[in-house]
């Protein structure tokens, strides 16, 4: 673990050189620990694949005290890949009008579409990072048999709730936006709601599982047709 000053009121905690489910679990645990360790001195936390950016109030503390508290408090972090975080279930309506690229993923993998659905929904994915857009959680790792490259030309508009694959990552688009990932389904739940508390149903370090549903349940759960 390395802790470096990266701004007048920020330090960067680097937990590893590469990402993995184990490292993602440690980042999630480090974020929870940093929140406890710094208390009211904390301004914000930005967890990512293998790092944690800690923003603190420079009128209440300084770099030295923050680094000392973090170094001592994070030294005993658990390394168990299953430690910390919750398991969050997201319903997903796969294929057809909900997943126009499911056929492309099937052709790339050489597997039937139903097998793609079973492999995608049968895995547990770690939340590696949240970014690109509020509520956009990068989830991994997708089964290598269904890993599919991004589209050569991104779409100008991807609908809210689109369940997508890009290489060995999967995600749910929280709002309409451009995007080049392969769309295989739709999730009816909102991945970002600024009026809700918490504003996102998933957090860094959580695990996500997808539950296949049909069109009727998708609409019953508040899903919007593309």
What does this structure look like?
This protein has about 230 residues and is of the alpha+beta class. It has two domains: about 1-75, Gyrase A, domain 2 (2-Layer Sandwich); about 85-220, Cyclophilin-like (Cyclophilin), CATH 2.40.100.10. Helices cover about 25% and strands about 30% of the residues. The protein contains five helices and 13 strands. It has helices at about 20-40, 65-75, 100-110, 115-120, 215-220; strands spanning about 1-5, 10-15, 40-45, 50-55, 85-95, 125-130, 135-140, 155-160, 160-165, 170, 175-180, 180-185, 205-215. Strands 5-12-9-10-7-6-13 form a seven-stranded mixed beta barrel. A hairpin with a 2-residue loop joins strand 9 (about 160-165) and strand 10. Helix 1 crosses helix 2. The longest helix has 18 residues, at about 20-40. The mean pLDDT is about 90.
